[in-house]
Amino acid sequence: MPAPTDSPGPDDTSAPGKAQEKNPAKSEQTRALILETALRLFQERGYDKTTMRAIAQEAGVSVGNAYYYFAGKEHLIQGFYDRIGAEHQVAIRPVLEREKDLEARIAGVLKAWLDVAEPYHEFAAQFFKNAADPESPLSPFSPESTGPREEAIAIHREVLAGSKAKVPEELRDVLPELMWLSQMGLVLYWVFDRTEGRERSYRLAERGARLTTRGVSLARFRVLRPLVHEVHELFTDFLPGMTKMLPDPGRGSTIG
Fold first, then answer.
1. Which distant-in-sequence residues (6+ apart) come within 8 Å of 21 by Cβ?
2. Cα–Cα distance between 245 and 2 in angstroms, integer?
3. How far apart are CA 27 and CA 57, in angstroms?
4. What is the dihedral of CA 74, 80, 81, 86, to 10 degrees?
């Protein structure tokens, strides 16, 4: 009986590992080729209608080779997340080196993400319905997305740390996560934004940066800090994938 349409055949999985060990550079090229091919087919045919076998055929590799580098279509999307993250890290360097004002740093980081993501806009709309499923590994809150999620939160931690803003010690772990959640709201809006050049998404990034900066400024007042913790706990209690919630200062915490 022939192998299933989207599964590797019995003779497809023996060689790729050896090939990778012998020539790491060629291996990385093959991985990039498979990812590029998958992104193109996702755009052309849609995520659901694209099989691993079709990706392998278009890339000119065996099905087993495709499965060696990516265990399934979900892992290809993780590869997409990794790529966006790596490109974003490069794009934000000039901003973070140049700007010390918190609002400028936040706005620069958010707009840099929009710049990097723009070529993939139509593709993002294709797979969003899968990513929106809380049980899907494509969800930004899934265990499979832990790496990209933590790297994105680390960017916001760096945004705060390198700014002139005075951030209370007890909020330095909370605020970057809330800033990342705010970025996820921007991403959601961007997916559905059909304005020319995603103009409204850029405006939202600027206004969101202004609002976040005001929030951070207000958080300097001790009386308002419990509110920040409460908002953080709301998300950590109800959003899967968020980090373990911090102790509540109002319930015997030793923070601060």
1. none
2. 50
3. 17
4. 150
Instruction: Read off the pLDDT of residues 103-153 as tens digits, 9 standing for 90 and up.
Output: 999 999 999 999 999 988 887 877 777 777 777 788 888 888 888 889 999
Q: What number of residues does the chain have?
A: 256
| Residue 60 falls in which region: left (phi positive, over 0), alpha (psi -120 to 50) or beta | left
Burial of 145 (0-12, 13-18, 19+ CB in 10 A): buried
Q: What is the dihedral of CA 202, 179, 125, 96, to 10 degrees?
A: 50
- Confidence band, pLDDT 50/70/90 cuts, at residue 13: very low
DSSP code of 6? T
Q: How confident is the model at residue 241, as a pLDDT?
A: 54
CB count within 10 Å of CB 35 equals: 21
